[in-house]
Write a structure and sequence with these properties.
Elements lengths: L20 H28 L1 H8 L1 H4 L20 H17 L1 H12 L5 H37 L12 H18 L2 H10 L5 H6 L1 H15 L5 H28 L18 H15 L1
Helix pairs in contact: 1-4, 1-5, 2-4, 6-7, 6-11, 8-11, 10-11
Length: 290
């Protein structure tokens, strides 16, 4: 008589998303493979459209008068036999990351979300929905002012000299500008997030408001590749506006919350014990003494 093999019951998934370490590693591996596959498909599509994308990226440089001094038309140089291949590959990778962003962002979200509480999930989805448009607005602003910044920087060339800018150097400049402006527009959103989780109260932000505004100007002067005043102002001014909006949100949010009986105490002053808590503490002390 043949023995009937009983199928092993499938382990139920933990309600809080907990699983053994090896299962976490397998899930991470699978999600990384999916994300890399999506990026690879995006890179292949980016290779196809790399020509039109390059025409858009070089437009700020071609808008300057210095770009036509070498041959009478907009021209950039490159050195090496394989340079053009790697430049096209870099453009394709950039396009691929943008096209595949919904996939790899979802994979990050799906991997992290089991460890979050319901309120944290809601905050994360809200902030993700705001972070993408803010990054896009910052990158668009950098693209719009890039021709003015380039014209200002190239305007310092000496008489009788012609600027020969390599394609890879110009492309690095464009990518850095897009990333700096995009990420900088996320900083006020980070302040709001810290306020929501109780780490950064509005009183602290209001106390250091002047210092924060000054540091924004310093940040704009330091992180921009050219360091010109036009780019600095174009970066610092919107950041100040967004900072003011974030501070207003903190103020209105904390104003709606009920006041605590310990709000009048300073950060270094201990709060008094209530009657119930004091009685409980005395009972514990007497029990320990016995």
């Amino acid at each position: 008589m043949a023995l009937l093999k009983r199928s092993r019951p499938k382990p139920e998934r933990d309600s809080e998303g907990r699983m053994p370490l090896m299962d976490h590693l397998r899930e991470l591996r699978n999600r990384l493979l999916i994300a890399l596959a999506a990026v690879a498909v995006g890179v292949m599509l980016g290779w196809i459209v790399s020509g039109p994308v390059w025409e858009v990226l070089k437009e700020p440089y071609c808008s300057t008068t210095q770009s036509h001094q070498l041959t009478g038309e907009c021209s950039l140089t490159y050195n090496g036999i394989f340079s053009s291949f790697f430049i096209t590959l870099k453009i394709s990778l950039m396009v691929g990351l943008v096209l595949a962003s919904p996939v790899w962002l979802y994979q990050i979200w799906a991997f992290v979300t089991p460890a979050l509480y319901r309120a944290e999930k809601r905050y994360t989805m809200t902030f993700l929905g705001l972070a993408v448009p803010l990054f896009a607005v910052g990158a668009a602003l950098s693209y719009l002012i890039m021709d003015t910044a380039l014209g200002f920087l190239l305007g310092f060339s000496l008489e009788g000299t012609v600027a020969t800018i390599a394609i890879d150097q110009y492309l690095d400049y464009v990518l850095i500008m897009l990333l700096i402006f995009g990420v900088s527009f996320e900083l006020p959103l980070l302040l709001v997030f810290l306020n929501l989780i109780g780490v950064l109260p509005h009183a602290t932000v209001a106390k250091h408001r002047r210092l924060v505004i000054f540091l924004m100007f310093v940040f704009g002067a330091v992180v921009t590749p050219g360091g010109d005043p036009i780019t600095m102002m174009a970066l610092a001014a919107p950041m100040i506006v967004l900072f003011a909006a974030a501070e207003l949100f903190m103020y209105l949010r904390e104003k709606r919350q009920p006041a605590s009986e310990f709000d009048h105490l300073s950060d270094d002053e201990a709060s008094p014990l209530g009657p119930d808590l004091a009685d409980k503490t005395l009972e514990e002390d007497s029990g320990t003494a016995r």
